[in-house]
Recover the amino acids of this structure.
């Protein structure tokens, strides 16, 4: 896919064989800091070299804009728009450096993610609004417990005025009178998403129970 500057894209990937991409809070925070530090046109060193525990200011020359994100235990979802040439490709290539950290920390080798990242072009505003809900509340789509500390979502950024927010929230929130209106829209959209997933799951189970024709 050719990524066009200032267009919106749903970018996602999961762990190889659906394995975890982080196993504890340290991994999760490391991955989240990678989202911040790798988003720059400027040359960078490793996160360790940049002092992992030191808070970094936003990049002056970013590669991409974040609209929404959700880091789940075995996969991630982003809504991004490139603001530099080949911004998404460069950012995702840098993010792949997380694999080296993860492998060293957990004494493993090989790929962490299931091949190259996947991306869908968000080609309408309606699609963008619903995609923002799908990504912001993806932990609810997968029924993760809200008290769990093994996921991280931009939903909290949308609901609060965080000074260190990494998302350009106004692109979505600016289309609603206030946050309460977006919450109402999100609740309705999430309900539809969960209904569709349940219907597809039932159809899949029905097909399995009935069996499928064997090709000759």
């Amino acid at each position: 896919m050719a990524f066009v500057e200032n267009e919106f894209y749903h970018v996602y990937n999961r762990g190889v064989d659906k394995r975890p991409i982080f196993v504890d809070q340290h991994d999760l925070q490391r991955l989240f800091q990678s989202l911040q530090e790798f988003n720059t046109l400027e040359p960078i060193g490793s996160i360790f070299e940049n002092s992992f525990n030191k808070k970094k200011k936003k990049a002056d020359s970013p590669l991409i804009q974040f609209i929404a994100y959700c880091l789940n235990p075995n996969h991630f979802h982003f809504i991004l728009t490139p603001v530099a040439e080949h911004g998404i490709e460069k950012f995702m290539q840098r993010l792949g450096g997380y694999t080296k950290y993860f492998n060293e920390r957990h004494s493993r080798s090989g790929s962490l993610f299931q091949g190259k990242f996947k991306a869908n072009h968000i080609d309408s505003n309606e699609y963008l609004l619903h995609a923002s809900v799908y990504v912001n509340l993806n932990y609810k789509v997968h029924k993760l417990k809200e008290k769990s500390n093994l996921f991280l979502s931009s939903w909290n950024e949308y609901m609060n005025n965080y000074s260190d927010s990494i998302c350009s929230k106004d692109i979505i929130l600016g289309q609603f009178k206030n946050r309460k209106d977006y919450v109402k829209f999100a609740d309705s959209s999430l309900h539809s998403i969960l209904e569709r997933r349940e219907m597809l799951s039932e159809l899949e189970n029905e097909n399995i129970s009935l069996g499928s024709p064997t090709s000759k």
Q: What stands out?
A: Confidence is low (pLDDT under 50) at residues 51-55, 211-216. The domain at 8-175 is CATH 3.30.70.1290 (Alpha-Beta Plaits). Strands lie at 8-14, 64-72, 75-82, 118-122, 152-153. The helical segments are 25-37, 87-95, 98-105, 125-136, 138-141, 155-159, 170-173, 179-210.
